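Let's practice the habit of predicting before peeking. Look at the sequence and jot down your guess about where helices and strands might fall. Then scroll down.
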Amino acid sequence: MPKKIDHEARKEKILHTALRVFGREGYRDSNLSLIASECGISRPTIYQYFKDKEEIYYYAVKLVTGRMFNKYAAFAWSTDQDYIARIGHICLDIMQTARESEGELTSLVDVMLQMKKEGRDFNEIILRRTAKLTILFKRLLRVGIQEGQIIECDLNKVADHLLLMLESSCFQVAFLDTFDMQLSKDLVATYLNFLRT
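Done guessing? Here is the structure:
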């Protein structure tokens, strides 16, 4: 009987190995042969999952943001917390996840910087992948305003501000060894408290 392969698990193993290789070798000096070797599989096997390094990067961003959004969307509408608390919980969880995944986050940001040097810009993919989170924030804000829990405000601007604070925290986690996560959490909490009625 042939061995049954969990393709999603293998794909994730390739992804995590690739991020380690990118971080150690640099994106430009990494290749699929090296990634395959460290995964313990053949190069042709990697091609069954990814056509090149760039596709691995896209998959990493898609996987992480997709899982996080599903988690937050489910939480947002299944709790009795007020709407400011819901938004705050999501923001704090994103920052905590960034802290816990510091190595992977640093590798992803390193890949972005190396590719930017090569003339590629991944801003569009990041915007596409964070659009659902922005929409979730707007929906929570809108319902919070309707229920009298949140002051009247520009939903687009507030959602953009929240995303900027989260991006800033994530980039600081990736780059600064002395980054004070509590300061970022306090900033988000203070900002959200200004929105309370």
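How did you do? The mean pLDDT is 87.
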